[in-house]
Each structure stands twice: as structure tokens, then as C-alpha cells.
Amino acid sequence: MAEIGTDIEKAVAYLKEGKLVGMPTETVYGLAGNASDEKVVASIFHTKDRPLFDPLILHFSSEKVLLPFVSKFPEKAQILSKHFWPGPLTLILPKTDLVPDITTAGQTAVAVRVPRHGLALELLKKVPFPVAAPSANPFGYISPTSAQHVQNQLGDKISYIVDGGECAIGLESTIVSFKDGEPVVVRLGGIPVEHIEKVIGAVKVRLSQNSNPEAPGQLDSHYSPKTRFSVERKLFHQLLKTKGGKVGLLRFDKPLTGYPDEYQFVLSPSSNLEEAGINLFKYMRMLDDVGFDLIIAEPVPEVGIGRAINDRLRRASHAK
Ligand code: TXA
Ligand code: MG
Predict the structure, then answer these.
(1) Mutation probe of ligand 1 site: the residue of 56, 206, 311 with most atoms within 8 A of C-beta
(2) Considering the chain, what is the average pLDDT of its residues?
(3) Rounded to an integer, what is the distance from CA 281 to the centroid of its chain?
């Protein structure tokens, strides 16, 4: 099993040796490694069981240190970076030769971000290379929002996990692509589209599907628990009966009355979408561990961060 701790020097030493470590961020935990070393990058793909067509995000301690890795930084991208970094925003920008092709899965653009987490920033400042960090989960499974989640799934494959507590946002970063010059949101995430539009005006949202991989890793089936998972707006006891077996519920702000409490998780009793985001992956994991025959999730209001939550629910419910 991996050692869990807050010894940044130790984590840095492992990274410099070409090893992988679990790294906390404000969104989800990442599986971190030296992005400039092709062998290390290959080991990230291997450890996650991730297909090589799915490119990685590079993490930096500041905008300044990432500049040599991108060849263009359009004005609107700069406005976004000034506004939201450090924070849950990833920009896709044309890359320079400093970024190995394997890191971007052969794409000519690279995904970059400056996370907002004290320990991550400390670590990133101390390594002389960009840090590639996909979410620290086996490919297709739910992203980790605590050190223990990383330990449970990848603990036998890595040496060290930096414990940064529970993730403050709990959903992955919002990805805005500037590959073709104009901004396109290709993954909904920790920063609501509304907030982005307030700063740079209207943006296109083009969430990729299997057939149109704009963010190639955003497959329809993703974030999937092992248990059968479905999303349904209206839920009646009668319906639950017809579904059969032991059914677990993931609710937004109220339990279903008359249904056993121990069969349901409520994301935010105060109807707060940020709180729902923080709890989403944790509760999905807890429900998955119970051994239900089916989990039924209720969609949350489709505004702000709620859009990212519903996106994750929809992908979790998509048959693999
Ligand atoms: O919040 C986050 O972004 C977390 C934390 C650890 O930083 N990381 C994360 O990484 O979610 P990952 O690898 O699980 O998801 C990255 C997504 C993938 O869907 C991938 O397809 C897309 O970003 N992506 C990365 N580089 C890209 C590129 N050059 N072009 C298009 N899409 C890219
Ligand atoms: Mg991921």
C-alpha cells in the first residue's frame, strides 16, 4: 500500500526519481508524474489502465512557468487565466516541442492548469518540470476526492499519496479549448459556464461524445460505479418496486419519504449545488460499496455547477 502523508519533500523526491504520487487538488486527486519524461507518462497511462488516445493535463505553479509550453495564448484565454487561476479551469492551447507527443496523445494542443490547493502548489513549485496528473482513478471509474479513495484503488501501484484533505470542489476542472482560436467549453466542471461567460462573453459548449471526441477522454460512459446506475427525474414507490432488487437512491436535497433512510444519500439538505458537488463522487462510491442491485440518481437543477453534476450523472448511467 502507498504511504499517505503531508511530506512534500518526499513527494518531490519520488517525482524527481520518475515515480508517481497521488496529488490533492481543489477538484479531485491527481495521479502525478513528470510530464517531460515519456517513460513516466507511459507509466501514468499504464497505472490507470487508460487508453493512449486520452491526453493528460499539465499542472504548473503559475501562469508564468507554463508559458514556454504553449505556442499561442489568445487574449480571451489570458483573461480567463487571470480571472480563474489558481482554480478549477483547464485551458487547451497550441503546444510547443517541450511537451512530448505521448502526453497530448498526438494532439497539437496541450491542456494546462494552475490548481488552487496549498500542498499542490508547494509541490509544483519544487519540481523543475510540468506535472501531468489525470484523475487518480482507474480509467472510467469515479474520480477520487480524498487520499483514501486513491489508496483504495491505486495504493498498490504507487509509493506515496499527499494527503490534502477532502477536495473543496469535488468535480473536475472546466475545460475550455482554444485549439481553433475561439473558446469552446469541452468539459463542464468546477467553474460554471455562466461565470466564464460573464468574463469573456458567450462561449460554445461542445461536450464530446464517443463519435466526436473533442476532449478525447470524455467518453459517454465515464465516472461509472460498478453497480447499475440510472438517472430518473420522477420517482415513485411503485416504480421502485418494478425495478426490483435492492435499490439505492442518490437524491439532491430531500430523501424520498417512506423509503428506508439507509438506502438513500442526500447530496445537500440545504439545496446548495456547491455542497452537492463536494459530496457527489464520495456518495457515489459509498452507494457503490453497499452492494445494491441498482442505484437511481435524481438530477439536480440544471444551473451553475449543477450542469457539471448532471453531466457526471448522465455519463455514469451510460452503459459501457
Ligand atoms: O480537475 C482536473 O482537471 C483533474 C485534476 C487532477 O487536475 N484532472 C483531470 O484529468 O480530470 P483527466 O485526465 O481525468 O481528464 C482530463 C480530460 C480528458 O477528458 C482529456 O480528454 C482532456 O482532459 N484533455 C486533456 N488534454 C487534452 C488535449 N490536448 N486536447 C483535448 N482534450 C484534452
Ligand atoms: Mg478523469
Answers:
(1) 56
(2) 94
(3) 10
